Amino acid sequence: MLTSILFLLVALLTITIVILARNRRRHKYALTSLRETLSLLEQRMRTRTDAWRHANDTLEQAEQRHRTTTSLLNETKEYLSSIINSMPSIIIGVTPSGHVTHWNSAAELSTGIREKKALGFRLQEVYPDLPVPAAMIEEAISLSEPSTKEGVRLEHHGNLHYVDITVYPLHSLELTGAVIRIDDVTLRQKLDGMMLQNEKLKSLGELAAGMAHEINNPLAAILQSLQNVERRLNPELAANQVVALALGLDLKKLDTYLENREIKHFLDGMDNAGRRAAEIVRNMLEFSRSSTRQLEPTQLNDVAHGSVNFMRNAIEFSMPALSQTLIIEEDYDSSLPVMSASGVELQQVLVNLLKNAAQAIQEAQREAPLLRISTRYIPPLAEIRVEDNGTGMSQGTSKQIFDPFFTTKVVGQGTGLGLSISHFIITQRHHGRIEVKSTPNKGTTFIITLPITQIG
């Protein structure tokens, strides 16, 4: 019995050992397989990690290139936008239907409408004063050729301008539209008009000079005949006494008759009128001379007096009502020496100042209109003052009056060049200075100072 139990135990132990050995082998095999699998997984993980790292590096490089490209594109866009916004021309981009796609700084300045408020709207909605019809845009796009309008009269916000308008077709793979360029040519139009007007004035001046020469001949004959009449009515002249004695005529009684009937007064009036007409013609000839522009010995007082006489006659002709009440005072410094200057150019300046003063006085409708011109010798300078009690000017106007084309007159009555030319003549030609002092509703004073280069 004990032997059987012992055998059974041995058998059980053997079976257990076999099972344990088998399990151990299985565990060892499983562990080996697990290690192999783990090694394979680690290898795959390293491979995938390397691939991910490579893909990540490639992505970072691509992203960096994208950022660089985007930055360059933004810089290029900003550069092109800066160029377009720096242009004085108005640049507007539109679609074929007329909707705004670009609106540069000049367009903002001209219209007062910011770019953000203009984009996406129809052109006629944001710039209704612009004469660019939809047909003009469509024609430029369909024909692939620019369409241009020159010298277009454009009134915007109460200001009159002349502009050139060009519509350029825009074609690309993705975009179709047009670019509108608007150039302000107001200055060019004014210059063209001034050139035409200058040619007319030149022709008129030549005609006036020719007429003045023709008028001089009969005037000289009239004045000479008047002198002969006065001489032959003089009772003290021996030749007259001889003829009167032969005719039995009493010259003293004849002289008394002429006095009582004021015939001599009429003759004096005719003589004065003739001389005045001759002086008008002479002043006109002096003023119309265009060849005498060299500096020469000039007496400033004579230039000023001649300018007054010229303008006095012009005022009588163009402002007859003012001429009846206008007082023109002349106060010249007799100590002024002869100086080197262009008398014709200085007379042009003074005539322009006197004309402006007369117009300001007429507008003011003063009860006692006064125009005063004076000279002073302030070594080493000569000073000329032209004063009036006209309408005067504001401080803002006073600062702009010497600017070319600036004028306070209505369209058609002034070019805005008179004072700018006067400023050039005084400052550049004579190296002097011209300034203005004015008070609204009280009057204006122009002060000219010239360096005196005395004639040896």
Shape: rod-shaped
Regions with little confidence, pLDDT below 50 for 5+ residues: none
Question: What number is the mean pLDDT?
Answer: 82
The first-level CATH class name of the largest domain: Alpha Beta
Tally of separate domains: 3
State the helix count.
Answer: 14
CATH superfamily of the largest domain: Histidine kinase-like ATPase, C-terminal domain
* Number of beta strands: 12
- What is the structural class? alpha+beta
Termini separation comes to: 171 Å
Going across the biggest sheet, name each strand in turn. Answer: 2-1-5-4-3
At CATH level 2, the architecture of the largest domain is: 2-Layer Sandwich
Q: C-alpha Rg, in Å?
A: 50 Å
CATH topology of the largest domain: Heat Shock Protein 90
Q: Tell me the major beta sheet.
A: 5 strands, antiparallel
Helix content range of the residues, please? 55-70%
Order of helices and strands: HEEHHHHEEEHHHHEHHEEHEEHHEE
What does the oligomeric state look like here?
single chain
Q: How large a portion of the residues is in β-strands, by DSSP E?
A: 15-25%
